[in-house]
Amino acid sequence: MSQHSTLVTRRGSVEAPDAPRWRAWLESYKTPRSIAYHGFMICAAFVWFLPILWMISMSLTPNDILQESSRQLFHSQLTLSNLLGVFATGDLARWFLNSFIVTSITTVLTVIFCAMAGYAFARIRFPGSRILYVAVLAGLMVPKEAMFIPLYLMFSGVQQQNTYEALILPRLAAPLGVFIMTQFFSKIPPELEEAARVDGAGRWRVFYSIMLPLARPAMASLAIFTFVLTWNDYLWPLVISTRTEWFTVTTGLASLQSNFDATTNLGDLMARGLVGSLPLLAIFLIFQRQLIRGITLGSGEK
Questions:
Q1: Which domain holds residue 47?
Q2: Averaged over 235-240, what is the pLDDT?
Q3: Could you give the 3-state DSSP secondary structure of residue 14?
């Protein structure tokens, strides 16, 4: 029997076949509103990708050509010497290792602490919870630059400069992460928690077995945001790391830049920026579905 013939269900009723899915999907893109929307999104994506494409092009172009003109997007001559020079100078392997250790531990601990705090603020009523929650959110109004001197004096006073503890601990306080997780947990129906309590589950059992699986989209988004912010952090590693072997990728690659790189070694400068951003691009491409899902479900609504 062909696909377009009449189909008979198990109950004996006769129903007309549905149109192929690809045809319905194609018809949905023919509306003027859909065409305008997708056209705008394509233009926005191109505008966002253009600086990255320009950086890749200049990193593959010899420096002598860039000294003549750097306005062209594509050049006639290409070279890998700029990229190879990044790996040949400095202690790049140690800098990448430092960044991966600091970023990974910071991301894991931040997600765990924010999930626990968000569940407590959303589900547990205790004296002073409102005031404490407002105090946590007040941390969003304090710029991190204003905390550099107290943090530096605190860690230098206990001889913790040039350590992983100094690079990790200040970033574990994430008021935005607490706010995201609190909003997500507050939107979960309380009937789920009550049913688990009837079955004899305790507070930790409810949190670990019910709440955390439901909060995976929000936790994934928080993890990606934390990873990106920690990897790109420059000021605090620059302040607390005084020895070259404790530099992260951002501070280490910046230390290789001379005063006249923007005019004489523009290709090398773009190559260092490309190498430093490759892990972030890989993380985004691998976890883009979780990131988008976390943003759409961040309010907790299903």
A1: 18-84
A2: 90
A3: strand
